[in-house]
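Ticket #4471: structure export looks truncated?
Reporter: QA, pipeline team
Priority: medium

Steps to reproduce: submit the single chain below to the structure queue and open the exported record.
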Amino acid sequence: MEEKTNTAITFNISGSSSPSGIAKYQYSLNNGEKWIDVNIGETVTLDITGVYSIIARAVNNVGTEGEITKRGLCCNSRQRRTYSYI
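Actual output as written to the record:
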């Protein structure tokens, strides 16, 4: 799903569970070639013009990576818009 907006994209990743607990979340802008760590409760802002295909996942306290969720977004200005991600 691709959503177009004229504002910067601000999103949070949340909503997973694990018996060992969630250690962190990760997102990727290049289909998983490079993952960027996100602390629990941290907000991510993308404010460079472009179309983003974002994938995200949770990583539990024993290092197991969760199921990948995908979202497409478009950004072309520096105003802000907020999304809840997973």
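Status: closed, not a bug. The export was complete when the record was re-opened. Leaving a note from the reviewer for reference: The first strand starts at residue 2 and ends at 4.
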